[in-house]
Amino acid sequence: MQTKTKLPSWLTLEEVQEFLGVRAQTIYAYVSRGLIASHPDPQNTRRSLYSAENIQSLRQKKQQGRKRETLAVNTLFGTEPSIPTAISTFAKGHLYYRGKDVIAFAETATLEETARLLWGAEIATGFAVPNRDYPRTAPERSHAFIALATATATGHSTHARTARVLHAEAAALVGHLAATFGAENHPEMRIHQRLARGWGMTEDGADILRRAMVLLADHELTSSAFAARIAASNGASLPACLLSGLATFTGPLHGDATPRVKALFDEVERSSADEVVNRYLSSAIPIPGFGHHLYPDGDPRAVALLAKFVPPEEITKFIEKVITLTGLLPNIDVVLAALVTRYRLPGDAAFALFSVARSVGLLAHAMEQINTGKVIRPRGRYVGPTLEIP
């Protein structure tokens, strides 16, 4: 019988490397993905300590060597639930929307065209921005969540409603969301142009927004898509499905990772790329925004978007230095933060851009789940005290 290796509660970077047999960059990636907890070493604040419990768990999974598909069928913890979907998928390091390579599709497509594709719909009027008074302030997520909560309170169940009606309501919801983030009401313009006008961007900047939103519209069965599907499976209204998905999306391990990268870039602009990189690496602190477990050879969305604009010089130097010293490539969060910095976009612009785009995918998942007619209700695997059965 094999016994577990006895470990102290917290390990140094060197001890983790020896125990797992991986490079420091891999450990940083595990921490950034929330797989390993870390905190500063009280004996030496320039370095970090790592949770032995998390590390032991990772080693056990590695030794078991079970296939992802088997895990997905049997558990929701530590892996993704397996749900049939025709919306998007990954293959050989690329993302596909209904069979179309998203990088090629984003060359010319708009978010409206992306919605038609992902929803399987004809949207005659696009994402109409309602004629309502919205706060004319910098983009701020509180406005969006208040508006969606209000719509949820008065929304109708998705049961016994035709696809055409649901598509029209979904399109109006995307327009409504964009308006709360500052999109101007110009019915003849596409949503990326309306956002660009509201944020004071040029025509070239508007095209960057167009490309970014197409690339961000969906990413297979993310946790936010799963949350939207759970709501939809129970007959919740489309505003409720979207609110469920976006609430999950606000987690820093999901859609709200960009603010951490933006804060890092602010540090770089206040000091220098060399100073910030050296401080992070000497303290064994993972640098947010680099590496992606689904794209070991680099996030193709980040590559495609970064090719269309030039970040500020010190930010470019920072990205190149991190790549050289860690071997990790920038993901889409780095490029979004660089875009916000380059165009001096206001307030919560990165979250606004990401959430308006991803609302298309969340609504696609909600409507696909509605068509299955099945309620998502996983069973709990009880691990509590022994039952006191009479």
Describe this structure in words.
This protein is mainly α and 390 residues long. It folds into 2 domains: 10-64, Multidrug-efflux Transporter Regulator, Chain: A, Domain 2, CATH 1.10.1660; 83-373, Citrate Synthase, domain 1 (Orthogonal Bundle), CATH 1.10.580. Helix content is 53%, strand content 6%. It has helices at residues 13-20, 24-32, 52-64, 68-74, 102-105, 111-119, 141-154, 163-180, 191-198, 203-216, 223-233, 238-249, 258-270, 273-282, 300-306, 313-326, 332-343, 349-372; strands at residues 10-11, 38-41, 44-51, 88-91, 94-97, 100-101. The strands form 2 sheets. Strands 1-3-2 form a 3-stranded antiparallel β-sheet. A 3-stranded antiparallel β-sheet has the order 4-5-6. Strand 4 (88-91) and strand 5 (94-97) form a beta hairpin. The model is unreliable at 1-5 and 66-75 (pLDDT under 50).
